[in-house]
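seq:
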Amino acid sequence: MSVIRRTISTPILLTLILIAIALIAVAAGSRPFNQTVIDIFLRVTLVVGLYIFIGNSGVMSFGHIGFTCLGAYAAAWLTMPPMMKQTLLPGLPDWLMNTQLPYWAGAIFAAIWAAIWAALFGKILMRLSGIAASIATFAMLAMINTIYSNWESVTAATSSVVGIPIIRSIWPYLIAAIIAVIVAWAHAISRAGLALRAARDEPTAAAASGIDIPKQRLIAFILSGAVMGMGGALFAHSIGVVTPDTFYLTLTFTTLSMLVVGGIGSLSGAVLGVVILSSLIQALRWLEAGVTIGTTTLAIPNGLQEIALGIVMILILIRRPAGIMANSELRWPRFRSEAANLQNPGEHPGNKPTQQGVSK
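struct:
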């Protein structure tokens, strides 16, 4: 209970930030801005899903967007009208062909579907460490992309799968982002999360203490896969179209860069990295389109957005190599001081040596 009391302020503050962003979007009443905020919440879901595994294990994964792809196609199979599926996806089994669920049920099953595959892949991959594990996760992503790009009767191969119900309301995406934050926080303070971070920081000592490192990594891998699958389902509903290449290298490196800039070892960093970089991306898009001030139109050349974004990311990482939040979390001031005392017990007033002790 003491761990919950010390850390509960983090998910509360992050939830309040996300709700505030949603309320600003509703107050603005602008459809383009509403879609921008939906994109932010989708990225928060995906980047927090990455944090659950990468942040706690210290193993860089280049394959998690594969679970997003699995979730997106699962949502398409489950929520598209049967007539559309008969035309575009004739290879689906009859029971799936005639099934049409609401989007929220499709998202739940998409999370389960992605978690099942995360368990199957993770059972093999989680025995690897370091660069070998990273390359293996990329191989997993390439495998998923290749299968979905060629399985024409079930995924329409490289053709677009259309007819997925589009959800314009901002609230389902907000709820998904909040669920991702709560799942990540609950795992981080659980026995499995604490053991995994111990293995991340001191793998030899953790193994000597009896921690089953592959098992703890597998737990985080499955949880993160489920969150990524849920995010993929809502991603599909946000645009109504899916193709395998949507969930490949571009989205992989975008989400990874947001996690690195925010701080790999911080849940708060995962959320704030998305908010800051997404805001910057949108500002650069507006400048590319042109902003009129009086009789003057200010605009930057097309393509400069990526260059400017890269420069900003480099500057942030030069100033803060461990990311904006590094390994720290947003907390109420009282809980922040308690956490500092726990990390540095020698500085706690009760642990300071007395003058008598020093003179001795």
